[in-house]
Amino acid sequence: MAEEKKIILTSAGLASLEEELENLKVVRRKEVAAKIKEARAQGDLSENAEYDAAKEEQAEIEARIATIEKMFRNVEVIDEDELNTGKVNLGNKVTVYDEEFEEEITYTIVGPAEADPAGLKLSNESPLGMALMGHSVGDVVENNAPDGILKFKILEIQ
After folding, report:
1. Which residues contact 23 (CB under 8 A, 6 or more apart)?
2. Cα separation, 63 vs 113, whole angstroms
3. Contact of 91 with 78, CB cutoff 8 Å
4. Structure pTM?
5. Residues 6 or more apart in contact with residue 146 via CB below 8 angstroms
6. Residue 61 above 90 pLDDT?
7. N or C: which end of the chain has fewer CB within 10 A?
8. How many angstroms from the chain centroid is the CA of residue 157?
9. What DSSP designation does 116 have?
10. Is residue 95 pLDDT above 90, yes or no?
11. Which 8-state DSSP code applies to residue 73?
C-alpha cells in the first residue's frame, strides 16, 4: 500500500481540528440521535422526510469524524519555535504588497487541510502559496491568475 500523504498543520490548526472532532463526537452525535428517535416516533419511516434527513446528517457526521481521525494518523505539526523568517515556508506569516490592487495583505502559509483563503490562510499548494514559497523579503513573485499575471512584493516574513 502506498504511503499516505502527510497532513501538515500549525498548532492552532491541530487544536481547531481536535475541537471539531470533540464537538462532532460529544454534541452533534447526540443531537442527530435525538432527531432520529423523534422521527421514528412519528411512525411510518418509508415516507418520513425528517427521518431520512436525520440519517443523512448522521452519515455526514460519521464521515467527517472518520476523515479527521484519518488525518490525525498522518499529521505533522509545524514547530513554530523553529520557523525560519529568512525565506517563506509553512507556518510563516507573509506580508505582501499586491501591485494590482495597491494594498498590503498578510497571509499565513499553511498545509492544504488548514487552508482558508477568506481567513487569509493560504495553502502551500495553492498557486500563490507555491509562488511565495522559498522567497525572501524584497522579492517580487508572479502568480498566474485567470485575469493574467499578478505581482506581489514580499514586505515581511514572520
Report:
1. none
2. 16
3. yes
4. 0.77
5. none
6. yes
7. N
8. 21
9. B
10. yes
11. H
